[in-house]
Amino acid sequence: MPNSELLNKEDLVAIIDSVDIGIIFVDKESRFAFVNKVGEKIRSIESKERIGTSVLDCHHHKVREKVTQDMNSFKQGDYASRHKIIKTNGHYFDNTYNVVKDEDGNFLGVALLSQDITEKKYLEDELKKANAKLEWKIKERTKEINQACEKLKVAEKQLLQSEKMAAIGQFVSGLAHEINNPLDGIQNCIRAVIADPNDKEQTGVFLPLALEGLYKIEVLVKQLLEYAKPKSSEMKSCNIKNIVEESISIVRFKLKEKKIELHTHYENEDLEIHGEAHYVGQVFVNLLINAIDACEEKEKIEIKIIQENENVRVKIIDSGCGIAAEDIKKIYDPFYTTKQKKNGTGLGLYLSYNVIKAHGGDIFVKSEIDKGSEFMIELPLAAFAQKAVIENKLIEELF
Fold first, then answer.
1. Of 294, 326, 292, 316, whose CA–CA distance to 378 is shortest?
2. 63-76 average pLDDT score
3. How far apart (Å, rounded) are the C-alpha atoms in residues 143 and 153?
4. Is the N or C terminus of the chain more exposed, i.e. has fewer CB atoms within 10 Å?
5. Which residues sit opposite 362 in a β-bridge?
6. pLDDT for 364-394, tens place per residue?
7. Distance of alpha carbon 144 from its chain centroid, rounded?
8. For the structural domain made of 232-398, what CATH number should be given?
């Protein structure tokens, strides 16, 4: 490159003065050797007056010893550069100190690059304040949301309990009819014995009949107590056919009331699931009551138990009124019901869905208006239950 194109000293100074960073060079004797325009402004000095003077003259006597120690550390090679932020006259400066050496590695001095970051620091501080304020608001809102969720859980639990009590109410209503039959027989037997207490042959016939009637009533009452009493979640292997049969016994009175035919088909009577029989049984009770409510008199309900790979499937099929396509997507939503208000709360299927999900299973439904519905409950067999997600606490919370 021709010499005429090389930058001279004045050009270099002009370039250095044009940058918005203060540049100050202190020689090995701790004297100001160069200060650009921004450096003059930052340090509030005139370079013409300061060039050749000691940097110690610009510092308070309390910090001069520290400045001397820093310069000695640079000279001795303890560190090649340092960085720190200082505050002067209400302004913040980002300072970087770099050791300068000649080609032979001899120490020449220290170059200080100083940038005014007051505005940046102000914005950072404002951002910190805003973040702290936002964090406080989030904590407050989170607290409010958690409180609302707790209240919602309590309300939901109460409503779910109401659904359970509604099912018990239906059971009790039918139980009265079931008890009346043996009770009438008992009364007739007792009247006959009282009418002729000396007729031992008649007494021998009627008293056993009366005891048989009492036994039937005892069984029915025990079923009610078993269904109504609080349960703790006890996960264990249980026979799915037995759960289905117990559920059928609970709704049998409703089947009789509407003269509905019930057909059962169990592909394998020994299939077992890992779960809580009582709660799974309540699901079947809910689905059976729905199926009965959907049927007119003398229609049919079918229950099938089949094995499908690692799962057991229980199908409850009715020939009732069916469910509209637009309603199927909503049937598991809480409080959604297609029944009359007095006949349903809209929580039965919601509860059932969550119980089955908590056992690692699923519920599927197929339905057509005026042709009936099929609900299929799929649960993992006990031997494969470890692969399923079974959440005891969720079941306890639901009831």
1. 316
2. 82
3. 15
4. N
5. 378
6. 999 999 999 999 999 999 888 755 555 444 5
7. 17
8. 3.30.565.10
Q: Which residues contact 177 (CB under 8 A, 6 or more apart)?
A: 253, 256, 257
Domain spans in the chain, listed from the N-terminal domain onward: 3-116, 149-229, 232-398
Its CATH class, for the domain covering 149-229, is mainly alpha
Q: Tell me the pLDDT band of 16, cut-offs 50, 70 and 90.
A: confident
3-state SS assignment for residue 112: strand
Helix (H) or strand (E) holding 265, with range, is strand 261-266
Q: Is 25 left (phi over 0), alpha (psi -120 to 50) or beta?
A: beta
Tokens representing 252? Answer: 């049998």
Return the SS3 of 80: coil
**Which pTM value belongs to this model?**
0.48
Q: Which residues contact 41 (CB under 8 A, 6 or more apart)?
A: 22
CATH of domain 3-116: 3.30.450.20
Residue-level pLDDT at 168: 61
Half-sphere exposure of 148 (CA within 13 A, CB side): 6
CA dist 147 → 159, 165, 174 (Å): 18, 27, 41
Q: By the 8 A CB rule, do 121 and 39 touch? A: no
Determine the pLDDT at residue 338. 66
The candidate with the shortest Cα–Cα distance to 263, out of 278, 243, 285, 244, is 244
DSSP characters for 280-348?
HHHHHHHHHHHHHHH--TT-EEEEEEEEETTEEEEEEEE-SS---HHHHTTTTSTT--SS-TTT--S-H
- DSSP assignment of 13-55 equals HHHHHHSSSEEEEEETTSBEEEE-HHHHHHHT--HHHHTTSBG
Cα gap 120→169, rounded to integer Å: 71
Query: Which residues fall within 8 angstroms of residue 254, CB to CB, at 6 or more apart?
Result: 170, 174, 260, 289, 292
Cα separation, 234 vs 214, whole angstroms: 32
Give the residue from 256, 371, 248 showing the smallest Cα distance to 317. Answer: 371
Mapped onto helix, strand or coil, the DSSP state of residue 370 is: coil
Q: How confident is the model at residue 292 (pLDDT cuts 50, 70, 90)?
A: very high
What secondary structure letter does DSSP report for 109? E
Lookup result for tokens 């009533």: 217
